[in-house]
Each structure stands twice: as structure tokens, then as C-alpha cells.
């Protein structure tokens, strides 16, 4: 319960950063969902006017229900502010994301944003990446068995992500996700380069240099850290 309260405080704190006229990347996951809901309240109560750029089908559906005008990332010149959650954040503000399966579009939108805000509850802040969370890797459906083998040669303990029905999980983009466990995860930058060098890997859940403001929620409020 306390984590949910902390998530809500982080989301509400970040929502205040949105000003009328902005183009705002809307993240995916439960914390980002609370952000979208808070922005919907501000649209209804204050007449806030901004354009949302969703990072997943589920975020787009939620935002549409709340009358938030949306554009695809390819239909906007740039994104002023991106607000998204994270699975883990280390002391250098490097992140693991992708537990929700939206990492490719999340990373694309984050990369075109001028300012990236990460909203988390305290348990996401970790001393070192990869101790508890695997690194999700989005891969081509074609050849995925061979890609999985190649990832194993990089030291990954691999697991093809499956849906509740046991079938391979398919991302919004039609790709598969191989969750890669590394313990320990030595150097995130080196690992990111190694993963991306595997033919058929589209993107990884290592978000490096993509956190300009970290908002850590607590049961009684939120702290904004400019990185
Ligand atoms: O999947 C994702 O990248 C989400 O943003 C995830 O990292 C955070 O989801 P949560 O807010 O539901 O914990």
C-alpha cells in the first residue's frame, strides 16, 4: 500500500511539470498510468492544454479516455518533456526498464525528448542494476532462437517472455522479448554495446543517460532530484 501511495505522489509531483502548449511523452506502466490520470484531472479542472505522445497502446487508450489529445511520435517535431517509470535506477541514474514490454517505443520517445523525468517509488532505487531485475531485450521474432543463443554467449541467463496463456509475449511493435539475467551486471555501458551488437536485437531495457530528473515518491510526498 505504501508503495502505491509513493507512486501516486511521484506521479502527481511530475504532473505539475506539464505546462500548456507542451508536447509530453506519456510513459507506460502503473506509475505512468497514475501520471496520465493526474494529467486528465488537470485537463478537466484547469483546462490544461498539451499534446500527449503515448509510449504504448495501453497508455494511448487510457489517455484517450481522459480526453488528452494525442500524436504519434512521428507526427511531432520533438517532445518537450517525457515522463515515465522505471524498474530500477542506480546511483548514476542509469535505469532498467521494460518489465511492461513497452521499452522500444519508450526509449524512442525518451530519446527525442528535451527533458526526461523518471517517476518511481523508493524500492526502484538500487545500489546496482541487475541484482533483482533482468534486462529485457526486444528481438526479432524471426530468428529469435538463434538470437537467444547469441545472448547466452554474452553471459545472459535468458528467458523468452511469455504471456498469461503461455504463448510468447508479443510487443506493440510485433516483436518478442528475451529477459536477460546478469548477476552481477558488470558495466551497463559495455553490456548495452554488447547486446546491441547481436543481429536481430532491436533494443534493450538499459536506459543510460535518459534520466534528467528523478522523482522519488514517498508515502507523504515526493522528492525531485535534478541529475
Ligand atoms: O515497463 C516499463 O518500462 C515501465 O515503465 C516500468 O519500468 C515501470 O512500471 P511500474 O511503474 O508499473 O513499476
Radius of gyration: 17 Å
The shape is globular
Strand adjacency order, main sheet: 2-1-3-6-12-13
**Count of beta strands:** 13
Distance between the termini: 28 Å
| Number of continuous helical runs | 6
Estimated share of beta-strand residues:
25-35%
Largest sheet: 6 strands, mixed
Class inferred from helices and paired strands: alpha/beta
SSE order? HEHEHEEEHEEHEEHEEEE
**What share of the residues lie within helices?**
25-40%
Mean pLDDT: 97
Enzyme class: isomerase
Organism: Paludisphaera mucosa
InterPro entries: NagB/RpiA_transferase-like (IPR037171), Ribose5P_isomerase_typA_subgr (IPR020672), Ribose5P_isomerase_type_A (IPR004788)
Function: Catalyzes the reversible conversion of ribose-5-phosphate to ribulose 5-phosphate.
Amino acid at each position: 500500500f505504501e508503495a502505491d501511495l509513493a507512486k501516486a505522489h511521484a506521479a502527481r509531483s511530475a504532473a505539475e511539470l506539464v505546462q500548456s502548449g507542451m508536447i509530453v511523452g506519456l510513459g507506460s506502466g502503473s506509475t505512468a498510468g497514475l501520471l496520465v490520470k493526474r494529467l486528465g484531472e488537470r485537463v478537466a479542472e484547469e483546462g490544461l492544454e498539451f499534446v500527449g505522445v503515448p509510449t504504448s497502446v495501453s497508455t494511448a487508450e487510457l489517455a484517450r479516455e481522459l480526453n488528452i489529445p494525442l500524436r504519434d511520435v512521428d507526427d511531432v517535431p520533438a517532445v518537450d518533456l517525457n515522463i515515465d517509470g522505471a524498474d530500477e535506477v542506480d546511483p548514476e541514474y542509469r535505469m532498467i526498464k521494460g518489465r511492461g514490454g513497452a521499452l522500444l517505443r519508450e526509449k524512442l520517445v525518451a530519446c527525442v525528448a528535451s527533458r526526461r523525468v523518471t517517476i518511481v517509488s523508493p524500492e526502484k532505487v538500487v545500489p546496482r542494476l541487475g541484482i533483482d531485475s533482468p534486462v529485457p531485450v526486444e528481438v526479432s521474432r524471426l530468428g529469435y532462437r538463434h538470437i537467444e543463443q547469441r545472448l547466452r554467449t554474452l553471459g545472459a541467463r535468458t528467458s523468452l517472455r511469455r504471456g498469461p496463456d503461455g504463448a510468447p509475449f508479443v510487443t506493440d511493435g510485433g516483436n518478442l522479448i528475451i529477459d536477460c539475467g546478469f548477476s552481477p551486471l558488470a558495466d551497463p555501458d559495455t553490456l548495452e554495446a554488447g547486446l546491441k551488437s547481436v543481429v536481430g536485437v532491436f533494443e534493450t531495457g538499459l536506459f543510460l543517460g535518459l534520466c534528467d530528473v528523478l522523482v522519488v515518491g514517498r508515502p507523504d510526498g515526493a522528492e525531485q532530484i535534478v541529475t
